[in-house]
Design a protein that fits this description.
With about 70 residues, the protein is mainly beta. About 10% of the residues lie in helices and about 55% in strands.
Length: about 70
Amino acid sequence: MQAAVLTGEALWIGYVNAEGGASQRVIAPVRVEGGFVTAYDHTADEVRTYPLHRITGVAELADDDG
């Protein structure tokens, strides 16, 4: 995730909210510190902060440029 902050790459994450609901998000991390990641959330179209302990998986997005 730190590398994505430096490169500006978008990542896929699996996330579980406080109520236990699972979702999948596409984010572009801006900062990782203090157990949180602040990122532009492409799914919600806004900047959000996620606790790292609620992230269940991280993957790079496939390169669609060919």
